[in-house]
Amino acid sequence: MPNMSPKRNEMPVQAPDVRNKNFSEVALGYTEEQAIDEAKRCLGCKNSPCRGGCPVQIDIPEFISHVAEGEFEEAYNVITRSSSLPAVCGRVCPQENQCECKCVRGIKGESVAIGRLERFVADRHNAQPAAPVEKPVSNGHKAAVIGSGPSGLACAGDLAKKGYDVTIFEALHVAGGVLSYGIPEFRLPKSIVAKEIDGLKALGVKVETNTVVGKTVSIQELMEDEGFESIFIGSGAGLPRFMNIPGENLNGVYSANEFLTRINLMKAYKPDSSTPVQAGKKAVIVGGGNVAMDAARCAKRMGADVTIVYRRTEKELPARAEEVEHAKEEGIVFKFLTNPTEIKSDENGRVRSIICQQMELSEPDASGRAKPVPIEGAFIEIESDCIIMSIGTSPNPLIKSTTEGLETQKWGGIIADEDGLTSKEGVYAGGDAVTGAATVILAMGAGKKAAAAMDKYMTEK
Amino acid sequence: MFEILEKKVLNPTVTLMRINAPRVAKKAEPGQFIILRTDSEGERIPLTIADYDREKGQVTIIFQIVGASTEKLNHLNEGDCLQDFVGPLGRATETDGLKKVAVVGGGVGCAIAYPVAKKLHELGCEVHSIVGFRNKDLVILEDEFRAASSKFVLMSDDGSVGEKGLVTDALKKLIESGEKYDRVITIGPLIMMKFVCRLTKEYNIPTVASMNPIMIDGTGMCGGCRLTVDGKTKFACVDGPEFDGHLIDFDEAMARGAMYKTFERKAHEETCKLFQEVK
Question: Using the beta-carbon criterion (under 8 Å), do A211 and B23 form an inter-chain contact?
Answer without folding.
Answer: yes
